[in-house]
Amino acid sequence: MTTSSDATGRARALRAVPAASRAAAASRAAALNGLPAVADLRARAAATATSTGSAATDDEPPESSPDLIVRTVEIPDVGDLLALLPSADPATTFSWVRRGEGIVGWGEALRLRTSGADRIRAADQAWARTVGRLHVLDEVRLPGSGAVAFGSFSFSPHSAAGGVLVVPGTVVGRRDGRSWLTTVHRVAETPSRGAHLPAPAPVGEPGPVTYRDGALTPEAWRSAVAGVVRRIRAGEVAKVVMARDVVARAVAPLDVRHLLGRLAADYPGCWTFAVDHLVGATPELLVRREKGLAACRVLAGTIERTGDDAADLRRAAELARSSKDLEEHELAVASLVRALRPYCASINVPDAPFVLHLPNVMHLASDVTGAVDAALGHPSTYLSHAGGGNGPSSLALAAALHPTAAVGGTPTRLATAILASAEQMDRGRYAGPVGWIGADGDGEWGIGLRSGELSASDPHEVRLFAGCGVVAASDPDAELAETEAKLRPMREALGS
Ligand SMILES: C=C(O[C@H]1C=CC=C(C(=O)O)[C@@H]1O)C(=O)O
């Protein structure tokens, strides 16, 4: 495992401003905004640093540690969060939005990178240390206000994609009828003036899109699934989640905002996310931690929708009775509960799944909740609003839960080894945890499904992924059809 961090070019550019004019500009700006001047903030920062102790880390000497001031102010209702995003750049555009609420961000104040088997836990610990160097002025105090890092992690510990946490330079949030703006800057630098939101910028259309096979042709993938079914029937494993990829190429450079806008409009009940080139709308919540409560939505077991409401109701009833899908679902719930139990004082597991209706498919779904055990001596000790440690963070919980049997299989180690050789591809960040974490460790982590990875080298390309749980009763043709249904959200967002 490795971690590293860097501050932005924006921060470096600001450092070039002479100190005297910085201070004068800051005082003017602060006076205009009715906010504390930089000198006051520096004094508060010094006081905070003294009271919270040193934030030195193994991999970052304290003298190079960026001390950041994070300031959240309430603003009038922003309306459509996604419409605020100023840039098409998928590296510095961030989203976590559901039913019009959530957070969006842009720019980059700090980036933490991790890799290897411990990539999620390492990011959690690096964030806990970073929090000790942040000076947060938050007048809103809702989940997603104050300091926030967006994150995304590879499915596999062996993937070069690794993991990332990014603190954007600007975050805007909306929840319960309130909106807020968070800006981040270095202690030594001038804050940008006022609570300005960017002027709306035109969003680029992809134009015609063509598709090519990813790692395997559909026929080769079908055969790979048939091989896995044979291994399951021979008793090697109970379940393997098999995924495939297709590569989409657009005539125009892809604008991440176009994809986000379409996904959020078509799949409002899903979490529409963008973090470090991964974009999608996932229906599956790996874990949310909020005020001591962990909540997870487990999905496994799928049937396609027909578009005819009466027929879909019959299909929903069929799904709820399907022994193949119920087995797949039960394995996913059991693996999640097993992994969550050590972190919770109590857990609530529904007796039977409900059927979640999405525009393209229906899933068997179970909402599992647990009371996070704050007394556990987890190595990451976040400051709660009350000022004490508050147990394993949302990211520590995500690290414990990933990969669930909904994206890996059962038993985990053998199933993930089988899927890696049968799929013949690196899943990258697909099916890994994606979401955000706050300074108190609360946050939300989805599973990066119904998603695509925008190419960092070719702005016209995006790699789309979809998978499905394979059990003894699986039919390879039906599984292939299921992946097509699960690719629909991204294909439709691309306009095809
Ligand atoms: C692996 C995916 O879906 C998972 C989540 C819901 C239902 C699933 C299923 O029925 O197979 C999968 O476990 C995917 O969408 O790529």
Automatic annotation (TrEMBL):
Key words, A-Z: Isomerase
Keyword Isomerase: yes
Catalysed reaction equations from the record: chorismate = isochorismate
EC number: 5.4.4.2
Domain Chorismate-utilising enzyme C-terminal: 219-486
Gene3D superfamilies according to UniProt: Anthranilate synthase
Signal peptide bounds: none
Superkingdom assignment: Bacteria
Gene Ontology MF term list: isochorismate synthase activity
Similarity section: Belongs to the isochorismate synthase family.
PANTHER family reported for this sequence: ISOCHORISMATE SYNTHASE ENTC (PTHR42839:SF2)
NCBIfam families given in the database record: isochor_syn
Protein name as it appears in the record: isochorismate synthase
Organism: Georgenia yuyongxinii
